[in-house]
């Protein structure tokens, strides 16, 4: 079996039927259980870059922000079958390239013990914990 070529698109026009299998594949049930139409997530996003293998959505990054003072990575996900092929790196790199003039570029993830590999991967991509950036993140209780 040959590995399909991955194509990337900057496009918010992705249906719930295309998004739902991707979000379910990584276990993001807080999205899939609470929203009837996941495409609503994209309409309010600033940047959406997707990765496709043939007609299957296999990766996605979306940001919220104004593209000037702040760009916040809300979601970055790659279907488990396609992980470790550079798709996440490409998606994050493309968003960073499109955000070079943005003053604040943020991504928040949980600090659980089972997420440490992901945090290390983010560090390898040039992102640092807010404590190292001499800023503070505040959270609503």
From TrEMBL:
Residues 6-141 form the N-acetyltransferase domain. Signal peptide: none annotated. Coiled coil: none annotated. It holds the Pfam family Acetyltransf_1. It comes from the Bacteria. InterPro entries: Acetyltransferase_Butenolide (IPR053144), Acyl_CoA_acyltransferase (IPR016181), GNAT_dom (IPR000182). This is GNAT family N-acetyltransferase. It comes from Candidatus Vagococcus giribetii. The lineage of its organism: Bacteria, Bacillati, Bacillota, Bacilli, Lactobacillales.
């Amino acid at each position: 079996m040959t590995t399909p070529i991955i194509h990337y698109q900057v496009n918010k026009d992705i249906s719930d039927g295309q998004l739902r299998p991707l979000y379910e594949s990584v276990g993001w049930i807080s999205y899939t259980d609470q929203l009837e139409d996941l495409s609503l997530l994209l309409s309010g996003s600033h940047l959406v870059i997707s990765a496709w293998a043939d007609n299957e959505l296999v990766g996605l990054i979306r940001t919220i922000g104004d593209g000037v003072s702040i760009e916040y990575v809300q979601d970055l996900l790659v279907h488990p079958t396609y992980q470790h092929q550079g798709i996440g790196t490409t998606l994050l790199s493309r968003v960073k390239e499109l955000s070079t003039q943005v003053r604040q570029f943020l991504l928040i993830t949980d600090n659980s013990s089972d997420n440490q590999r992901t945090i290390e991967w983010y560090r390898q991509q040039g992102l640092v914990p807010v404590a190292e950036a001499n800023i503070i993140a505040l959270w609503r209780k």
